[in-house]
Amino acid sequence: MANRLAQVAGHISGNYSQGLLKDEVAIVTGAAQGIGRSCALIFAREGAKVVVSDLDENKAQVVVDEIKKAGGDAIAVGGDVGAEDFPEKIVKATVAKYGKINHIVNNAGFTYDKMLHTMPDDSFDVIMKIHVRAPFRLIRAASPYFRVKGSTENRSIVNVSSTSGLHGNVGQANYAAAKSAVVGLTKTIAKEWGVFGVRANTVAFGFIQTRLTAAKEAGATIVVDGKSVALGIPGGGKQADANKPVPGIPLGRGATPDEAANSVLFLVSPLASYVSGHTLEVTGGAGI
């Protein structure tokens, strides 16, 4: 612990040679783009060995190549986080390569918006499956590497939620329910695994400039159970205009993926060594 505190002190003073996550192993799901990609790159910069996971393994490999080009260490593991064999697949690949797991960032997900009275069961169920069941199953599969008595290593779980999960949102009964459930899951992990020195936290994002908040008219889609699901918000791209402050956000703008990822870095790093069971709202002041 003394070494970790010295490392933190060195980082704060401007000595970045060690990195906040030096020699730690982090799994990041949904890491080929957006917030997940930024997390993977920033973690690697801070010395972590990163397992870059995404539905599209080719895109995940591009991020791995970027990390390696910068002198970091990473591997790509493709697959659907909701698949029955995914947790065992990624845990096995991680341990085979690096021998341990320090952090899991459950970031993978998407939106499937419908008004409540027109929302079919399948669009509700798939969001719950990807945003709640999948993180639960991955964390459970990795439990032997977290429930280690006497370990002094920095270990944590970060589950990605949303302001929709905290306050609800029109057209997102499924997404809001799932992201609310994530908070309860995280608090339970904090209570059950705290005795092993494991921290568990949630980060609830507001308006982050990703494909989920871009204009739906741009045509971004994801294939879910053979169906093409449109991503984005009608007219959403207009919110990113730097010359037009975003209503309801005191800082007046959406966050970049890197800004979002920096909040996750804080939660997994030794800087948050006594932060567990917390929901960190990253909203630019919205909702206060």
From TrEMBL:
Ketoreductase domain mapped to chain residues: 24-196
Entry-linked InterPro entries: KR_dom, NAD(P)-bd_dom_sf, Sc_DH/Rdtase_CS, SDR_fam
GO terms, biological process: fatty acid biosynthetic process
Domain of life of the native organism: Eukaryota
GO molecular function, one term: oxidoreductase activity, acting on the CH-OH group of donors, NAD or NADP as acceptor
Keyword list, A-Z: NADP, Oxidoreductase
Family according to the record: Belongs to the short-chain dehydrogenases/reductases (SDR) family.
Identification of the protein by name: Short-chain dehydrogenase/reductase SDR
Native organism taxonomy: Eukaryota, Fungi, Dikarya, Basidiomycota, Agaricomycotina
